[in-house]
Structures are given as C-alpha cells and as structure tokens.
User: What shape does this take?
Amino acid sequence: MMYRFLLVTTFLLSTVLAQSQATFNIHLEPFNINGFTGIQSFAFGQHNGKILLIGGRKDGLHRRQPWASFDVAGHNTDILVIDPETEQIWAASVNTLSTGLKEQLQSTNMQFYQDGNTLYVIGGYGFSSANNDHITHPQLTAIQVDACINAIVNNTSITPHIRQFTDDYFAVTGGQLGKLGDTYYLAGGQKFTGRYNPMNGPSFVQAYTNAIKRFKIVDNGINLNYQALASWTDAMNLHRRDYNMLPQIFPDGSYGFTMFSGVFQHTVDLPFLNSVDFDSTAYQVNNSFSQYLNHYHSAKIAVYDSTDKAMHNVFLGGIARYFLDDNGSLIQDDNVPFVKTIGRVSRFADSTMTETQIGTMPDLLGAGAEFILSDNTPQFEHEIVDLQQLTGDTVMIGYVLGGIKSSQPNIFFTNTGSESEAYSTLYKVYFIPSGITSTEVATPNEYLSDWSIFPNPAEEYFKFKINLEEPAVVDAYLSNVAGEVILETGLDTLAAGSHEFTVELESPESGVYFMSILVNGRLYTKQLIIK
Assistant: This one.
C-alpha cells in the first residue's frame, strides 16, 4: 500500500477542567529488619507470613555508562526469606544452583506469578557468564514456595525445590505476568541483549514484544513445559515495559487486568498516558482516560468496592512525567523524575475513570518496589482487597518492600551511582476509610478536542480530521491487525484549529487497520476498515 497526506486547516478555541473528591487514604509505618540491606526490581512469593525474595539489584538507579550499568556487583545473589512480624531474615546463595538457575535468579525485572504454592518466574535481565554478555534470560522457572522457605530457614539445600525450562519464548524482561482461568498472560516487556547505552550505541540489541503472550503452563510437579496460545500484538499500544499491571473487577463483574502507563511510546521517549484492559477474550485500549501520575513500575494495590462497584488502583511513589505541586497544580517534567506521589486511579460502575492524589511518600521512593498483601487482609480473587470487609478506622493490609530511594527528582543525567540506593526500610501499609481529603488531578489541556476518520469503510482513500485547542506536535501512524506499523509520518507542530488530512491508498489490501495519532505525547487510536 502507498499513502500520501494532504492538509486543510481552520480555527478552533480551547477549554480546561478541574474537580476534587474524597474516598480513602493510605498510611505508611516504617520499620527495619536487621540484616536486610535492600533490593529493587525483584520477584517474590509468600507462605504463612514469610516472604521469599528472589533476584533484583542491590544498588539504585542504573548508571548511564555501558561499562558501569547493571554491573555484576549489583546482582542480588541470595534468595532471601523475611518474616515482617518477627523481623527476622534468612538467606541462601544462588551459587549452589546450576548455571541456568543461578544466572536467571540473580537477574532484574523478572516477570512472576504465584499460583497456589508454586512461584513461576520468567525471563529477567543481567550478566550471564555462560554467554559472557548481558542477556534476557530465556527461562521459565518453578519454585515450591513453602519448601524453599523451609529449606532456607533450616539451612538445607534449595536445589530440590526449584525446576527450570528453557525456551526463547520466555526471553522477556520488564513485562508483567498474570493468570485468568488456566491461561497465563505475559504482557509487554522486551528482549534486551548487551550493555545498556542511553546514547543508542552499538552495545545492545533491543526488541519490545509489542504483545500480550498467552500460554498454558504444563507442570506435573516434576516436568515443566508450556503450550503457546495465540498472542495479541499491537506495536503502538503494547510497546510498553517497566509499567504497573493490576488485576481488575470490571463494571460487569468480570475479572481481568489493566496495564497502566509504562514506557516508551513508539516514537517518543515518554511514558504512555493511556491504559490497556484485557480479559480472557480480548484486549482493549482505553484512550478515554489519561493517567498523569505514577508511570513506572512501583508498589501498587488493587482495591474493590462491591457496594459501589468501583475498582480503585493505588500507586505508591515511583517515577512519572507529571506530579502535583504544593498548590495542587499539575507540573509537567519531560525528564520524568522520581516522585513522592501516592496516586489512585478509580473506575466506576459507569466505566468512567478518575485520578486522585491521596497522599505522598515520605521520600522519593517506590520505583522497583512491591506491595505484599497480608494473609489476613480480606480479598477477592487475584489478591484484590475487599474494601467492604475492611472494618475499623485503620486496618493494616500489607507491606511495601524494597525499591529505589533517590536523593533528588532528576538524577539520571548526572548519576554516578551514589545518588540513589536500594531501599532497606520496610513499611506497614494501613487503610484509612473515607473522611480524608484528597485532590483529583485537574485535567490539563488535552490539546485534541475531537477527531474522526471518514469514509469508514474506505476504498481508494480515507480522510482524518483533528481539532486542536492549542498548537501541538502531531504524528500519525497506520498499523495492521498484526500490530505492524505500515505508515508513520510526523505532521510537525500544527496550529490551533481544525486540520484535515487525506490518505490515498494505492493497491490496498482489504481488512481491519488502526489509525493512531500522537498529540503532544498522548496517543489516540481508531479502527479503520479498508474494503
């Protein structure tokens, strides 16, 4: 197919919105465990009040220089067990394991999911002595959580309790792993080989999955394998990693997941503002709501209010392109700094969504951390907190553990390794019911007030029209159902007003396509049928 753009322009005006609301808040109570020095971007499992910690890094934000970034010294080479109630810690070295196991289980940004007593761990990035290079590990590993915890506590071998299967299908890092029914969903992420280099030098090869991989794990307790199912691929909207994914109860009562924000957009090094919902049947891009707070992977909590049929998603700190100042104004920082924001994204019974700041972290914390739900917290399936069963003024629901503590909001460009650290202080997380004042994010000017595609279905050509409330940088993309971008063009900075473009089709292939426009960093997508 060949395409050509034509332009017509008229004038349009602008508007701004703001609101506020109050629902609930989160209180953090710090404590320390003697001997725990901190980790970030790790995997975890839990059993009977004890928490199993695997992989991650013992340092802070990775450095910019390829020779220093993700160095071996920062690997977490111990599998840890902590008991937050008794404040005890135990450790076992991964060096007692086979090469494939020990290399994967000291990597960072693995995907993981605990199914009953089995913790499944996939991929992860780190140095491999066997390959003499940094790689994304191509393994699926199964860990018997209770037996592994008992072995570490009692100083016996962990080897009998860990099994591994190798296949390049699992060479993914920075994604998220979930399960619905008997099907697993490996959502987003990338395969990264070589040394990190922010200047895009020749030291690495990077490939986003652009997909939600679906598969079944075949595991009889001895042999480990998998059955691949059809993946969902979308090079525009699933091109994301290092994000937050949370289980959802949707307005119709069904279960699924939402992929919130993440990085990086297809053509600009900025976080996504839209989100992606999926259940067992399909995924859907949500362009009707923009998330301005909490863009990178951080500690997060899923809370459901069964009375109001409202799904609340809480994000504790991390890294974001936007934050609220002391006056409640939304501040944009395209350097994407560390933030203190405790944000909540709520989805209501009518499917509308709002974003609210409900508090702040005690410091620039949360990136690469995890929230670990207490066994005693009332919950629905998939570890969704049952809000209606939280009785009392203040209820302890779990722990925030690990992550990066940064000394300043923006340290990436001057990072020498001493400006941040893997955080060793833990927090008990308390739920505080309504009555606490919070601030809903005042929606900034979205620039785009409306857009349309016509005719649709199209044959020899189609047009799309956009209405801009203010001048904005605009790019346009056309992709097919396989997620491949078959057209991309920069329309540059356009004036406020109405702009109409014509795309001429030469020898078009009939089928379903997706037209996307990127307006000042926000992505909008519509379906297009070509006959």
Notes: Helices lie at 99-104, 145-153. The chain has two helices and 45 strands. The CA atoms of residues 299 and 370 lie 4 Å apart.
